[in-house]
Design a protein that fits this description.
The protein is an all-alpha fold and 278 residues long. Helices cover 74% and strands 0% of the residues. Mean pLDDT is 87; it is low at 192-196.
C-alpha cells in the first residue's frame, strides 16, 4: 500500500493543480505580450478549471491503464471525478457566457489537439524504454494552444492561423513538450535501457532542443525593438535553462521531487517575468 504520509508540496502534482497554475501564469504573459486591452477574469477562471478537468481526466485514464491501482488518483477516484465534472461545467458556463463568439473556432481546433493527445495515450504502442515523443508533442501543442487562445481570442482581426504561426505559441509549445518528455526520460532512466546508444540519443534529444530553444528565445528577445515581448522570451529562456540544469542534476532527487521541480521550472519564469516592466 502507498504511504498516506506525504509532504505537503507533493499534493500540487497529486491533485493535478500544477497544470492549471502553469496555464494561468503563462496566460497572463501571453495577454501582456500581445497587448490585450480587454481581458476579463473569466478567461483565467475558465482556463484554470478547464485545464484541471482535462488533467484529472488524464490522470484517471492513466491510472485505469496502470497495474498500480493503489495510486493516489485511483484511491480517490470518486471524489476527483465529481470535482472534475463540476469544474468542467463551470468552465463551460464561463466560456459560453463571457467569451466572444469567435472562441468556438478556437475551441474546435483545441478539441482536436486534446482528442489527439488522448488517442496517442490510449493507442500508441512503444517498445522497451522508447520515449513517446509524438504523444508529448501533441500534449505540448494542446496545452500551449489552450493557454494562448484565451488571450488571442480577444485580439481583433486575428484567428487560429495567426495564433499557430506566432513565435510565442511555438516557443511555449516546445517548452511544454520538452518538459513533458524530460519527465518520462527521467522516469525511465531508472530502468535498464535496451542499449547504451538509445539512452545517449534520448539525452541528446532533450539537451539539444533545450539549448536551441533557449538560443531562439534570446534571439527573439533581442529582435523585439518595442520590448513588449521580451519578458515572454526571457521566461522561455529561463524555463529552458532551468530544465537543462535539472536534467544535469536529476540524480540527486527522487522521482516525486523531480515532478514538482519540473513544474517549478515552468512556473518560476512566469512568476518572475509577469510583472517585468515593458
Amino acid at each position: 500500500m502507498e504511504k498516506e504520509c506525504r509532504p505537503w508540496w507533493l499534493y500540487l502534482n497529486l491533485l493535478g493543480l500544477d497544470a492549471p497554475l502553469i496555464a494561468v501564469i503563462w496566460l497572463f504573459l501571453f495577454a501582456q505580450t500581445w497587448r490585450v486591452d480587454y481581458h476579463p477574469w473569466q478567461a483565467y477562471a475558465a482556463l484554470g478549471f478547464g485545464v484541471w478537468t482535462i488533467r484529472i481526466a488524464m490522470k484517471l485514464l492513466k491510472g485505469s491503464m496502470s497495474s498500480h491501482q493503489t495510486s493516489f488518483v485511483m484511491a480517490h477516484k470518486k471524489p476527483l471525478k465529481v470535482a472534475a465534472m463540476m469544474a468542467g461545467v463551470f468552465a463551460i458556463t464561463l466560456t459560453v457566457m463571457s467569451f466572444p463568439l469567435s472562441v468556438y473556432t478556437y475551441l474546435l481546433v483545441g478539441a482536436v489537439f486534446v482528442a489527439g493527445y488522448f488517442a496517442l495515450t490510449l493507442f500508441s504502442s512503444r517498445e522497451g524504454n522508447e520515449i513517446g515523443y509524438a504523444q508529448h508533442a501533441m500534449g505540448g501543442v494542446a496545452f500551449a494552444f489552450g493557454t494562448a487562445l484565451t488571450a488571442h481570442v480577444y485580439l481583433p482581426s486575428m484567428g487560429v492561423r495567426e495564433l499557430m504561426l506566432s513565435r510565442e505559441f511555438i516557443c511555449f509549445a516546445v517548452l511544454c513538450l520538452l518538459a513533458s518528455s524530460a519527465m518520462e526520460l527521467w522516469e525511465r532512466s531508472g530502468k535498464p535501457a535496451a542499449d547504451g546508444e538509445s539512452g545517449s540519443m534520448d539525452e541528446i534529444a532533450l539537451s539539444l532542443p533545450l539549448t536551441l530553444l533557449g538560443a531562439a528565445a534570446l534571439v527573439f528577445a533581442v529582435q523585439d525593438d518595442l520590448m513588449t515581448a521580451r519578458p515572454f522570451y526571457y521566461g522561455i529562456l529561463t524555463g529552458a535553462a532551468l530544465l537543462q540544469v535539472l536534467n544535469r542534476t536529476r540524480g540527486r532527487f527522487g522521482l516525486h521531487t523531480l515532478r514538482v521541480l519540473t513544474v517549478l521550472c515552468l512556473l518560476t519564469p512566469g512568476i518572475i517575468f509577469k510583472s517585468y516592466p515593458v
